[in-house]
Amino acid sequence: MIKLLSILFEVTPHPMYVKDAKGRFVIVNRAFAHLFGLTPEAIIEKGVLEEDYSLERDLGLLNAHEVASLEEYYKTATGAGAWFQTTKKVFIGPEGEKYLLSISGEITACKTALQKSQEHAQLQQEQVDQIRQYFLNYIKATQELLPLLLSVPLTPAQEKSLRALNSLSGKMEAELAALVSPPVAEDMSPTQELQPSPPEPILYDFSCLGNIAEDAVFIQKMQRLFIDIVPEQLTTLTTSVAKRDWKETATIAHKLKSTYANIKITEATTAMKKIEENATTRKDLEQIPTLLQHARDITDRVVAIFTRELG
């Protein structure tokens, strides 16, 4: 098996390695070794890397005999950073020995594009805030000046124009609030500062799956699987929490964490990670129902979107 893996490693351009039960490298391909400016032979001969970012996580997976799908960040030999979507799986050798297989696909371009998109959205929001504040300042100055102007002798036509301006400034403020701010309470002072609505968060992201994210059929299958499986798993998790079966709770939360992480449902991933930690350590157990409900709310929104897109 190890010999077959060695042959496969030579023909793939993606970083791959195999570690033994002690976390030592036994197979490394050139794509992985290149990240550190080394040869596969040099890494295998030494068995370890001075900067093995994954060692602690790999040992944990080996001990737990688990499968993991996660994002990893490597600082390469050139000093640049690179992001990878990595799958790690434990397997048993022909003589019963335990190994960990790690396969990575680079997603640096995806992460960079996502970051630029978020920065662009933030810049747009800041520009809207600046324009909004300019108009609010102008309206406030007008409203403060009008009483002074109305207190001096005026012709009927002048007074009519000023009162019309006063009415118009109030309407402008209300329209501005409706465009860029949440609903304002009726008793709010006309000069009270209005806050803009926060941008709608991105619930999920298939782009980090690489080229397969462009396969519409594959994405539809993933959406159907999510709809069919995740709500049911959440129901099972709820039952485990109600039974105070913390071992089963941690196991299901771990599976859901990986599922959410695969399509970057960040808040639900974080919630499942916290549930897994709390259930494993038996600490802060009272937080679990709230975390579970938060994940369910997000899941319901994603399911609704997927259902609508699938027609």
From TrEMBL:
Ranges for domain HPt: 215-311
Phosphoprotein among keywords: yes
Alphabetical GO biological process terms: phosphorelay signal transduction system; regulation of DNA-templated transcription
Molecular function (Gene Ontology), one example: protein kinase activity
Ranges where the PAS domain occurs: 1-51
List of residues that carry Phosphohistidine: H254
Keyword Phosphoprotein set for record: yes
Recorded coiled-coil stretches: none
Transmembrane segments: none
UniProt entry keywords in alphabetical sequence: Phosphoprotein
Family annotation (NCBIfam families): sensory_box
Official protein name in the record: PAS domain S-box protein
Organism for this UniProt entry: Rufibacter immobilis
